[in-house]
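Hey all, quick one. A colleague (J.T.) asked me to put the magnesium ion job into the tracker so the inputs and the structure tokens live in one place instead of scattered across chat threads. No bug as far as I know, just bookkeeping. Sequence used:
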Amino acid sequence: MSTPKIRIRGLSKAFGSKVVLDGIDLDVETGTSMVIIGGSGSGKSVLLRCILGLIEPDAGTIEIDGENVLTAPRGRQEILRRQIGMLFQNAALFDSMSVADNIAFGLRAKHSDRDGPVPSRSKARELAGGILQQVGLDPSVGQLSPSELSGGMQKRVGLARAIAGQPNILFFDEPTTGLDPIMGAVIDGLIVDCVQKLGSTAIAITHDMASAQRIGNQAAMLYQGKLVWQGLAADLMNSGNAMVDQFTHGRREGPITMELRK
Amino acid sequence: MNAVLDPIAALGRAVLGLVRQSGALAMFALEGLSHLVRPPFYWRIFLSTLIETGFFSLPVVALTALFSGAVIALQSYVGFGQYHVQSAIAGIVVLAVTRELGPVLAGLMVAGRVGAAMSAQIGTMRVTDQIDALTTLSTNPMKYLVTPRLLAGTIALPCLVIVADVLGVLGGFTVSVAKLGFSPSTYITATLDSLKTMDVVVGLVKAAAFGFLIALLGCYHGYNSRGGAEGVGSATTAAVVGASILLLLFDYLLTDLFFSQ
Ligand SMILES: Nc1ncnc2c1ncn2[C@@H]1O[C@H](COP(=O)(O)OP(=O)(O)OP(=O)(O)O)[C@@H](O)[C@H]1O
Ligand SMILES: [Mg+2]
């Protein structure tokens, strides 16, 4: 068996007395896209942040290409993580820059992965127009500032910035939340394209089951800090797991109780 | 239960908190400075901060200096009038402006203008995940956001203080000539006689230190802000208050160092 692109073992994280991740084991094979579902506040974003090195986990290992990033020397950590492109839940666009400059920033920052010199600022800005078109936006949007965009447009620009450098690994934190259904389907298609064209490995967090099945081949469900189910994305709607069934069908009755989260 | 020990414990906690804060601030400063010698250096951010700090603060600093020079001239005239030492006024103005008023007032003005802006800007980037986004785009946020600002602050404030020195003296000159009836040539001669290179240089050294402190506090509080708009608001307040207090503390320490022999 080949080494998984990302391999997580025993990952735990607590904030104060609140345990958010409690011994997560997860393998994501190269070229697959893994969809993670789970209730609001179940720690999905925290999981991605741990892999990205934005949050220090309390225990466990995270391997990228078989190398533990948590114990690797700092320079090596940066090289391993440089492969990851991230779309944040709230897009996190740089509001001191125009939309085109945001995308150009992503393009130039990740460029050293590939051959050729880093494109100049003006060249990168030109290329940004094409990437905007890919996410269904007119290139003229490039001149606007992020604060002039609607939430859904910001999401698409965030996606454009994340894919601009064509990274090997892509993380999407709720890529289609806040988009209309048609645009959601377009973005899902785009994610699938990226993963297939670039041969990238993806992890996507989503609450949208249609979207989960479009994007993912694998799926996992997070509940109370643990992965309670892992399987094929195609099986999400009839997984045979009571929790997943309740979640995907949106039933109020079931093993998941709406306890008040602390 | 412990009327004696409780206040002592509270004092102890306060001191420990202060020590911890100072330590964290010092580490932050060292990390920010360490990126000066590790490329890349982000020139665009450096230049835009330099212009924002040095150029756009000019009106505020100029007006402040002009009026304080004028006030010093007037106050000294009123205070010394009876002792017939009006001729010393030019000397008092130039000494007060170059040694103290120029650097301190320019520093306080810039702390309110630029320190607050830095803290609000970086704080907003923190609470909207933009700093995390920098990290995921292989850009060290300390190197990108903090280092250029520290350098720009350190360079911009001495430049502003040169202007403040000139305008402070001009303020004193204007009042002395137009209102108090001095002869312009006597005033200028007296000013040049009392002008000491050492005073000006020490004033500029102070200004550099103040500029660094203002940028440091602005970046530090912004970078560590938490909790949405309210967190950014209190970070900005802390940056301005902290910078103003540290500025006056360092003013005392540097004055003691250079002038007390
Ligand atoms: N920096 C932090 N400090 C303290 N607690 C945190 C921090 N980040 C996240 N948490 C807590 O961790 C829990 C999980 O948060 P997370 O953002 O991962 O949820 P999520 O699964 O992404 O939910 P959603 O679907 O609503 O985005 C939450 O209860 C949150 O309060
Ligand atoms: Mg989340």
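Adding what we noticed when we looked at it: The domain at 1-83+168-178+200-262 of chain A is CATH 3.40.50.300 (Rossmann fold). Chain A touches chain B through 23 residues (CB under 8 Å).
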